[in-house]
Amino acid sequence: MTWLPPDSYTGRVTDKLARLLAFCVFGLFLSHPAFAEHEVLYRYVVLGYVKDAKGAPIKGTPVELIREKTGFSYLAETDGEGFYIILARLGNESVGERLTVKAGLLTATLTARFDPRNHADERGTRLDFLGRKPLERPGWFAGTLKRFLAQ
Question: Are residues 103 and 140 in the same domain?
Fold first, then answer.
């Protein structure tokens, strides 16, 4: 093997390639399996219905969830039954975070409530907009999600 002086072009390129290779190999040894984004511990579901004051569903209403901490926004639109579902990326560190939900001209503020140790149950809440009144129904969340997923 021929020794190249460190100040030659070939020597500098060879040195950079060797460092890059060492960095990549070192990174492979330090890497660990990452949790997938679809895991329960990375998502928070807000779902519900938008209806007028008489209880009739309002189709095509834009619904937006905004994370107050980051300003990230998640969008949905109501279907023919006035139903919407929003899947937001919230990890364990987001417990207690304030969320703003807008349905058309109506606005509601929620707090992300869940047990960070529970990685089995879905995390989320149900928020209905009935007339001009937002109504959070966390106890109805699991049943509503189950019915939606069964369709």
Answer: yes
Q: d(Cα 128, Cα 122) in Å, to the nearest integer?
A: 19
First to last CA, the chain: 68
- State how many domains the chain has: 2
Structural tokens at position 144: 């509503």
Where do the H-state alpha helices sit in 2-140?
9-30
Instruction: List average pLDDT for each run of 10 residues in the chain, which is 151 residues long.
Output: 54 54 48 50 92 97 96 96 95 94 97 92 96 96 94 89
What is the distance between the alpha carbons of residues 109 and 111, in angstroms, rounded to a whole number? 7
**Single pTM value for the model:** 0.73
For residue 124, which of 146, 103, 105 has the smallest C-alpha distance? 146
